[in-house]
Amino acid sequence: MSSPVVSTAAMNLHLRSGKTPLHILKDIDLSIEAGEVIAVVGPSGSGKTSLLMVLGGLEQASNGSVTVAGTAITGKSEDELAIFRRQNLGILFQNFHLIPSMTALENVALSLEIAETGQSFDNIAASAKAALTAVGLGDRLDHRPSALSGGEQQRVGLARAIVGKPKLLLADEPTGNLDQDTGARVIEMMFALARDNGTAVFLITHDPALARRADRILSMNHGRLTPMTESVPA
Ligand SMILES: Nc1ncnc2c1ncn2[C@@H]1O[C@H](COP(=O)(O)OP(=O)(O)OP(=O)(O)O)[C@@H](O)[C@H]1O
Predict the structure, then answer these.
(1) Are 190 and 159 in contact (CB under 8 A)?
(2) Looking at residue 31, what is its pLDDT?
């Protein structure tokens, strides 16, 4: 059997707020297989985004182990983490983070260019165009973010997150700002990526209907992650 894409053991995250020490993540043991979609639910402030940040190498765990796509990311330098992210991760935030001066096509192509896959410019442009077409934006390639609606910008963000066929997709409330139809479309694309490419998906959501579609639901409470056993309220 292949090893999991995500594996953490006895992982803790301590931060400080002024002089007050905070124990944000407590003894996290998490494993996510290739092609598996995990939904993480839980109250505001419970630690969901903090866990996403640790898995993405955007926040360093205080102790324990964190292995993502075969790389032990604890203790790596910022430069090493940047390379690790470019080669293995897709990240989809609620607030898109698109580059305002670049067109949709350029925003998506940039993520392939900085991943340094060695592809020619023509190949990169073709992949970016295919990803944008897949999210229904084939006719918006030359639009800058300011000329796109919120839902369209989110879909550009999704195209950018998936164009490199990442081993792990991290998504924080990806449908929070979207109408139902656009949200459903974004979700379909994420599931397709897991199914067709074997991408492991870590999805934070407050949407019970969305959580129920995942392979597994985990609940975060006061920094502890536990399997969701009772059914998610509608
Ligand atoms: N850089 C930081 N310094 C200090 N405390 C932080 C920092 N980042 C997050 N926290 C605290 O960590 C706790 C967990 O925050 P986190 O954003 O992970 O929660 P969440 O479950 O994602 O919440 P939400 O659903 O509201 O997004 C909160 O109490 C928050 O105030």
Answers:
(1) no
(2) 97
Architecture in CATH of 6-227: 3-Layer(aba) Sandwich (3.40)
Question: How remote is the CA of residue 220 from the centroid of ligand 1, in Å?
Answer: 12
List the domain boundaries for the chain.
Answer: 6-227
Residues 85 and 144 sit within 8 Å (Cβ to Cβ) = no
Q: Is 70 exceeded by the pLDDT of residue 126?
A: yes
Q: Is 44 in the pocket of ligand 1 (CB under 6 A)?
A: yes
72 strand-pairing partners? 67
The answer to whether the CB of 45 is under 6 A from ligand 1 is yes
Which of ligand 1's atoms lies nearest the C-alpha of 47?
18
Stated pTM of the model: 0.89
Q: Kindly report, residue by residue over 129-161, the tens digit of the pLDDT.
A: 999 998 889 999 999 999 998 888 988 999 999
User: What is the DSSP code (8-state) at residue 4?
Assistant: P
